[in-house]
Amino acid sequence: MKTTLFAALLLATPAALLAQTTPAAKPKPKPAAAATAAPTRPAAPNPAQVEARANALTDNMQKALGLNPQQVEKVRQINLISVRGVETARQTYRQDVRKMAAVIDDIGQSRMAMLKETLTPQQFDKYQRKREEKMGVPSGQGAQGNAAPGLPSRYEE
After folding, report:
1. pTM of the prediction?
2. Which residue positions does the secretion signal occupy (predicted)?
């Protein structure tokens, strides 16, 4: 009886394995609603979130740079336009990362140009330094002649 049971298991096992794997190998059909649905336009960015982010940026800049009331309003409008543009780009180009990055870079450059016109030269320099520090851009002093950690400098041989 043990031999018969063992033989039955050996013969049934390949069939059982094939029976379990064959249906999984077939591609599953897509739901009809998803296949026939028209592409939807990306939703507009949430105005409350955009305004909150722009106000937070403006408040931080006011504290860090000592903006006067006229500058605060101009900077708030610049930040509002920029944040709205970035959020729209993120939603519009979420499938095309390169295009999204290019659009966001353009928005950042135009924001910097508008800020340069609004801020005093001293305020803009301070803003640039803080921005570079936050983004991890190496300063001119650190980038001159220091070897990367673990690598010999050109003077050691």
Report:
1. 0.61
2. 1-19
